[in-house]
Structure formats: structure tokens, C-alpha cells
Design a protein that fits this description.
Pfam families: DUF5061
Distance between the termini: 78 Å
Helix content: 25-40%
Mean pLDDT: 79
Largest sheet: 7 strands, antiparallel
Strand content: 25-35%
């Protein structure tokens, strides 16, 4: 085998490897991602749905707005202050909430996030759960 033949085989092998790599990359791009469950991968599973009144408030109010609720996921006669909406890591719109109850000094924090169906659910803040040792 001559040096020219050896160089030709190396060149042909390199071309073949480059072609196969290109086919693999393009094939991977053409595949459709697997369909996920409705709320798969989201932190929303298990959240408490809110009633129509609070749902509409969360969907339409500006940051810093408050609403008085006779009935809520936190009990009766509470004031809910909603902060400016933001996008969570799940990609869903969420809002930080402060809940004030009559006769109590401390505010309770919660997070409300919009589900794929357009309804809002509430969950307590992770930092609150950690500071309470995971108690509910």
C-alpha cells in the first residue's frame, strides 16, 4: 500500500464519520419530543384550587392589589395581597400572596400558580414549609 492510498483511506474514513455524525444530529432534531402529562414536571400537583372570585382576581389584578374574601382556602374573612405575576421554573405564571387574618399579627405566605387549564391553585411557600419542619 502506498502513502497516497493510505491518505485516501483516511480521508474517506473521515468523510464517512462526518457524514454519519451529521445524519445523527439531523435525525435527533427531527424527532418529536415525547408528550408530557397535562401538568407533568410542574410543581402544581396537589395545589388547592381557588374559587371563581379569587381565580378572577389572580388572573386580572395588578401587583400589590388586595381582595377581601369571606371564604378562602385559608379560612373565613381574610385579606389576600397579590404581588406582581412572574414565570416559575415550570413556565407557569405564578404570584406570591400574603394572607392577613383578622386578629393575627403575622401574615401567612402562599404561592398561586395558573394551571394549563387556566385555573389557579395555591400552595404554601417552600421556605415556610422548611422553617416549620415540613408540618402542615
Amino acid at each position: 500500500m502506498t502513502t497516497q492510498d493510505a491518505h485516501k483511506k483516511v480521508r474517506d474514513g473521515t468523510r464517512l464519520a462526518a457524514t454519519l455524525a451529521l445524519v445523527a444530529v439531523l435525525g435527533g432534531c427531527a424527532l418529536q419530543p415525547a408528550q408530557q402529562a397535562h401538568d407533568a414536571g410542574s410543581v402544581l400537583g396537589g395545589g388547592k384550587p381557588v374559587d371563581a372570585n379569587l381565580n378572577g382576581f389572580l388572573a386580572q389584578s395588578r401587583g400589590g392589589a388586595a381582595i377581601q374574601l369571606a371564604k378562602s382556602p385559608w379560612g373565613r374573612d381574610v385579606e389576600v395581597l397579590a404581588e406582581t405575576p412572574y414565570f416559575a421554573a415550570s413556565g407557569r405564571p405564578c404570584r406570591e400572596l400574603s394572607i392577613r387574618r383578622p386578629g393575627r399579627q403575622a401574615e401567612q405566605g402562599a404561592i398561586a400558580c395558573e394551571t394549563a387549564s387556566g385555573n389557579w391553585v395555591v400552595r404554601r411557600q417552600v421556605t415556610q414549609a422548611v422553617s416549620q419542619g415540613g408540618r402542615r
